Amino acid sequence: MPLPLKAGEVLRGRYQTIRIIGQGGMGSIYLADDLRLKGRQCALKEVEYDLKLSPELIQESRDQFMREATVLARLDHPNLPKVSDFFSISARDYLVMDYIPGKDLRTIMMEKRQENSFIEESVVLDWASQLCDALEFLHGQSPPILHRDVKPSNLKLTPNGLLKLVDFGLVKVLAPGEITITILQGQGTALYTPLEQYGGDSGHTGIPTDVYAFGATLYHLLTNHPPSDARERFLDPESLIPIREINPKISIKTEKAVLWAMGIHPLDRPQMIQDFRQTLFGSRLPFNRMRYNISPIIKYLPGIPEKVLLGIAIFVSVLGLFIHLLL
Question: How much helix, strand and coil, in percent to the nearest 5, is found in the chain?
Fold first, then answer.
């Protein structure tokens, strides 16, 4: 873990750190004052690279960071923070974004849980509509941009009710032919990560990857109950408790849409955010392709290590995706 910056340090003669507002394995996120634009506060995302890597790999990672920053700096959408600057100091790279005031959805959900109550379905669906707008915008870029880490703590609600999808740390750009180019390394958060993303940066992630995380996020917000992760669900399909068993006030339509988005295989989910939106808010019905489902069989195979089963699951998912791309 890199040593964080101290409060009051000034970077690039412009950004004065106030405090840490987020921290991860690759660095910290700071609240900072913009000394050039008085009164403006920003979020300063720091990236420090593993010094155990070869100089060539470190340089490749830094080049990737610059490509990511260049891509993000040209994005402009009301449900996304604006990236305004990026720079390097010694072995660390920095991304400067708008600071988003307000609570994240995980905090709001935990407050409701402490009150022994649920967030109203209509409120969650309003957030879902705004998140659809943000993801449609990202996926509609040329080439498409994947977020890959949609989750309640990466969704902030401003005081005026505007939802913002924050933290672009795991962003990917889809190159022509659906081959993914990694911009920043990362695996996502287990509860919201689909099976194909467990393959790491060599995995064949796509728009359905963000759809899964979107669905898992809605599941958590509607139930105050974390969803079973994809590995557990592959080994035991019944481990995911239906939404209405936890919160009977949720409509059947919403439950079906969310569970469709959480399909284990990428082809068993909406292929586009627009499809998911139409199922949540329109008349479209969930659609699942028939395919081989080996998880009920594997569940009862004795003596096989979980890592081997997970490897089989990833192989089946990737194989199915390749077949889909060839058709």
Answer: 45, 20, 40
